Each structure stands twice: as C-alpha cells, then as structure tokens.
Amino acid sequence: xxxxxxxxxxxxxxDLALVELDALVSGLAGEAQAAVLQAxxxxxxxxxxxxxxxxxxxVRAIGAGDPLVALEAGPEVRVRDGGRDGAxxxxxxxxxxxxxxxALARLDDLAxxxxxxxxxxxxxxxxxxxG
Length: 131
Prior knowledge:
By secondary structure, the protein is mainly alpha-helical. It has five helices and no strands. The two termini are about 40 Å apart.
C-alpha cells in the first residue's frame, strides 16, 4: 500500500478517532446497542489490523539496510566510475527510508488515537465501563 492507499488508511483511522461512543449508541439499549457496539468494535479492529500490517511493511523498508554503508568503503571506492551512480543510489535509498519513517510516524500517531477507542468499546461490551 502506498500513496493513495496510505491516505485512505490514514483517513479511516482519523475518522474512527472522531467517533464518540456515547453518540453512537444514544437511544439504543439491549440487543440493538450490543449489535452497534459489536459492529463498531469490528471496524476498529479491522482498521487497526490494517494499520499494523502497513506498519510492518514500513518497518521492513526502514530496516532494509544501511544506505550509508558506503562510508566504510573509503573515497577511492565511492568515486569509482565517477561516483555519480553510487551517490544517486544512496540518495534514493535514504529518501525512501525517510519517506517510510515519516509514513510510519503518521500511522502510529493516528493508531494511538484509535486503540483507546477499541479498549473503550471492549470495556462497554464486557460490562467494565464506568457509569
């Protein structure tokens, strides 16, 4: 998932973080309330599972190797054949790692706002909600 896929996931998480549970179940009781809570919990779970899967992809991209390993090679090796191809390759890898790190940070920030919502739904569904 990249680009628009990431944006769709981020938008989904943002939207779920805005849902007020009291407003969602307002006027409902019994089985109707339980059904809405279950459906909402399922959606929160799906969104967080998608965020987790995407985060794992991003972590793999970030940890795919040190683009600056060429520093250990010494100047003679780095400038072989003019050095431009190697410099461009390292720059691309650094830019890709930076983009993955920023994407992971955005994803983690939004998931941090959604996970407590899932716990609150779970508390209500198991009868542990306050008041």
